[in-house]
Amino acid sequence: MNNALQQMAQDNKTPAEMLRYMVLDSKIEQQIDLMKNFAEAFDVTLGEVTAIAAWWHDETAELNDNDINAYMSPLVQDWLKANTNSQSS
Questions:
Q1: pLDDT for 36-70, tens place per residue?
Q2: Residue pair 28/40 in contact by the 8 Å Cβ criterion
Q3: What is the pTM of this model?
Q4: What whole-number distance in Å separates Cα of residue 51 and Cα of residue 67?
Q5: Residue 3: partners with Cβ closer than 8 Å, 6 or more residues away
Q6: DSSP H or E stretch at residue 80
Q7: Does an H or E element contain 70, and which?
Q8: Where do the structural domains in the chain lie, given as residue ranges?
Q9: Buried-exposed string 14-35: b where 16+ CB fall within 10 A, e elsewhere
């Protein structure tokens, strides 16, 4: 799952698209599992991804796609910068 999420980040997919992929395509329905996968893929703590617990793919939860993208995009961007830097060294 880590490689798939990292590739999606490199392909400029949004965090909401990544989460939707995990729920709809990979059939991961427990939010704690979504949080763990996201945290592991982007080398962050569970505490940094708690906003995922307030999101759901059909936008019936507290946060919608725009909200989750606003919370999670900086984490993904930080990972992309670190990943790009390590590859160019």
A1: 999 999 999 999 999 999 999 998 999 999 999 99
A2: no
A3: 0.91
A4: 9
A5: none
A6: helix 65-88
A7: helix 65-88
A8: 2-79
A9: bbbebbbbbbeeeebeebeebb
CA–CA gap between residue 69 and residue 81 (Å, rounded): 17
Output the pLDDT for position 25. Answer: 96
CA distance 60 to 19: 14
User: Of 18, 55, 52, nearest to 35 (Cα)?
Assistant: 52
Residue 63 phi/psi, 5-degree rounding, is: -100, 140
Which residue, 39, 52, 50, is CA-closest to 78? Answer: 39
Listed residue (67, 83, 88) closest to 14, CA to CA: 67
More confident position, 87 or 47: 47
Cα angle value 81/84/89 (rounded, 5°): 120
Residue 51, both tokens: 């906003």
